[in-house]
Amino acid sequence: MAPLELLILKTLKAGPNHGFGITLHVQEASGGLLGVEEGSLYPALHRLEKDGALSAEWSTTQAGRRARLYRLTAAGHKRLAKAEDQWNTVSKGMAKLMRFA
User: Fold this and answer.
1) pLDDT at 101 over 70
2) Among candidates 91, 17, 89, 20, which has minimal Cα distance to 56?
3) 3-100 CATH fold
4) Can you give the residue ranges of every domain in the chain?
5) CB 56 within 8 A of CB 49
6) pLDDT at 40 over 70
7) Cα torsion through 18, 23, 28, 31, rounded to 10
8) Mean per-residue pLDDT for 42-67?
9) What mean pLDDT value characterizes the chain?
10) What separation in angstroms does the CA of 75 have from each of 14, 37, 66, 78?
11) Does the model's pTM come out above 0.70?
12) Which residues contact 50 (CB under 8 A, 6 or more apart)?
């Protein structure tokens, strides 16, 4: 799974959100170290929705704008758990490699 998809799923685990809200959460949660470009975010959201990991519906934001509100499905929760396990394994391997390389 692409890291962006993991970030999206992890963000939506906290609750439904729209695209801009996901972008803000990633930036804030990473202390500004990570950013999400619109050109990458929306295709990833559409892929995840098509794959059944997300559901989406139109809603109105607090600012009065129409936006798609994304939420995890049961399949999305399972996909997130698997992706977190994979990421943790890769992270541990990279940390070990960085000590010896």
Assistant:
1) no
2) 17
3) Arc Repressor Mutant, subunit A (1.10.10)
4) 3-100
5) yes
6) yes
7) 160
8) 94
9) 95
10) 16, 25, 26, 5
11) yes
12) none
